[in-house]
Specification:
alpha/beta, Rossmann fold, 2 domains, six-stranded mixed β-sheet, five-stranded antiparallel β-sheet, 9 helices
Length: 277
């Protein structure tokens, strides 16, 4: 049985005054029904990797890949219409900032209903009940009221939870979550991650969790890919992040403040030492 997702030698480039610049370089991995974390600094190519998997990058971006397959089917060979049937229903992505992902002229409820009805034939009466149930699952109080709000009327944290509800309601096989809990407080963050975990167990879903939070990814993911300057520099088991060998990964770990901090100065990344501190 093939993995859910196969990715081989993904490369993404953009034009610049000095020619095209490769910002994702040779990323390769398989994803099964597991939790895969991708970590790295801003600009390391994490989010671009997630968007490229769903073929969301448009010119002037240029994407090349040796193989991109979902359940053995070549995604690069699919038409736009075939890809629209995959996006959302089979592979969903929670974008990093809900303010730019939600339609400002549609209510929250209408957008979640649309996400469900586009991919699933369901009776009208059952749609509302399912939307309300999903909003409750992402810990939104008074979901009836929230369904009638517009995106500008909800907080950043609530917008994040609405996006998660919208992406999970079709019950996808793969969820790509780009900083899905960045706008949430710690208690709600744990609840949302528990919900995603529940969906993984119930539906056999695969997860790609893109995050800056090293501790979160280490606790939550089965495997971790560390990206730097568009490349995967190290792959680790989820519980073995502290055993990382690569200077860049060690530098990231050393740059994180500790609760029992005794250092006089917090180390920063030393770019002249190959990414260490």
């Amino acid at each position: 049985m093939p993995p859910l997702l196969e990715l081989r030698d993904l490369r993404v480039s953009f034009p610049s005054p000095r020619g095209r610049v490769e910002v994702v370089r040779g990323v390769t991995f398989d994803l099964g029904r597991e939790r895969l974390g991708i970590v790295g600094e801003s600009g390391s190519g994490k989010s671009l990797t997630g968007r490229a998997i769903l073929r969301l990058l448009r010119p002037p971006a240029r994407v090349s890949v040796a193989r991109l397959a979902f359940e053995g089917r070549d995604l690069m060979g699919m038409s736009d219409r075939e890809m629209r049937a995959i996006r959302g229903a089979r592979i969903s992505m929670v974008m990093q900032d809900p303010r730019y992902s939600l339609n400002p002229v549609m209510t929250v409820g209408a957008q979640i209903v649309e996400a469900l009805r586009v991919h699933e034939r369901i009776a009208r009466g059952a749609v509302r009940a399912r939307v309300l149930a999903m909003l409750e699952k992402v810990r939104i109080n008074d979901p009836e009221h929230v369904m009638g709000l517009y995106p500008h009327e909800v907080s950043g944290g609530m917008g994040q939870r609405v996006m998660i509800a919208m992406m999970l309601i079709p019950k996808p096989d793969i969820l790509i979550a780009d900083e899905p809990t960045s706008a949430l407080d710690v208690s709600v963050q744990a609840q949302v991650l528990d919900l995603i975990e529940e969906m993984i167990v119930e539906n056999g879903m695969g997860l790609i969790l893109i995050s800056h939070d090293l501790d979160l990814v280490a606790r939550y993911c089965d495997r971790i890919l560390v990206m730097n300057r568009g490349e995967v520099v190290e792959e680790l088991e989820g519980g073995a992040l502290q055993l990382a060998k690569h200077p860049y990964t060690r530098g990231l770990l050393e740059s994180v403040p500790r609760m029992d901090e005794t250092r006089k100065f917090l180390p920063v990344m030393d770019r002249n030492a190959g990414g260490g501190t």
